[in-house]
What does this fold into?
Amino acid sequence: MSKTPRAKKPIIATTFSGVFVSDRAFKEAHKIGMKELADKAKMPEIYEAEQSPDYFQKVEKALEKVYPNLSPKERIVKRRAIYFDRVLDLMKKEDIDTDMINYFGHLKKKYRIALITTISSKAIDKFLEFTGLLDFFDIIVTTEPDEKDDKRLVWERFIKQHGKPHLYVGDSKRDFEICSKKGIEFLTVIEFRECAQEI
It folds into this structure.
């Protein structure tokens, strides 16, 4: 007698900053880091270039000036490690959103909860430990330490490994645009708070 394999629970995916913790420390660390890089490279224009299409190219040029003896990948690893350490130093326990943790906790009975984040694979456990979420997620997909802070890379990796999620909860224009292009249902954090009990 054969058994029909039990279907896997559908996936609700989300991100870390802006959902489980305030993005305050992330924004502050980014601002400090970019000002620091602009000053060291003597390239004040990169401090204001975040929305420009050539932002990454300008940052790479600045990193090359500041770290001329490192390879491009080594520069990325160094800057991202500095950034994540700074975020952790700036984070406070009051930044943690316990309501959101509880909302997602209730959903674990019916869904697998996935984390899609540009926090690197080397740093993610420190963030999860700080927030008490070390064993919370069923699936975690991150960037690698030597990859750029590009959410599209993480999304492609996630979909290749796990398929499209049933729903994505996020708080950024970038995630909304990715979900729209890929036909994934998207809820903002505010919308999710209002209907979490009905999902």
Summary: The mean pLDDT is 91. Helices lie at 24-41, 55-66, 72-90, 98-107, 124-131, 151-162, 173-182, 189-195.
